[in-house]
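pasting for ref
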Amino acid sequence: MSDDISRRAFVGAAGTIALWLAASPADLLAASNPDQGTYKVLTPDQVAAFDAFAAQVIPSEPGSGGAREANVVRFTDNALASFASDQRPAFTSALASLGRRFASLPPAQQVAAMRALDKSNHDAFEVLRTPVLAGMFANPSYGGNANRTGWKLIGFEDRFSWKPPFGFYDTPTEAARHD
C-alpha cells in the first residue's frame, strides 16, 4: 500500500507469491472448484471481508475488471481448503485483524484500516494480499484469474508460442533499422 517499495520488500512479496503459485499443477487443479455454490472453508463474514479487502487491492476497472471479476475469493477459499490448508490459521487471524465490520465500512475507511494493518502488522497484511495477487494472475485453469481478468489488466497475451521481438527491449531502434 506504500507508494515506495524497497527491493527487499519486493523480493519478499514475490517469494511469498511464488510459494502460492509453485503449488503442483495437480494441487492447483484440485483446488479449482467449478462449483460456484457454497464456500469450502470461509464463512460468509470472512467472504465479505476478504472480498472487500481484495477489491481495494485490485479494484474493478472498466473493460478489464478487478479482483472480484477474477474470482479471487473463490480461488483463495479453494486454496485454503487444499494445498494452502496450513496457511488457514494465519489467514483467519489476519482477516480478523481487519475487524468484524470491515466489509461494511465506506471505501475510504477500508483503505485506512488496510494501511493501519500494513503499518502495525505487515506480515498479516501480506498474508491477505498474497492470495489476492495469486488469484488475480494465476493460470485460469487453476481456478483464479477468471476470464483472464488479471492478464487483460496487465496486457498479457496467452499464446502457445512466442517469437521475437518479445517486448520493447527487443524491438530494433529506428537507427538500427537503417544500418
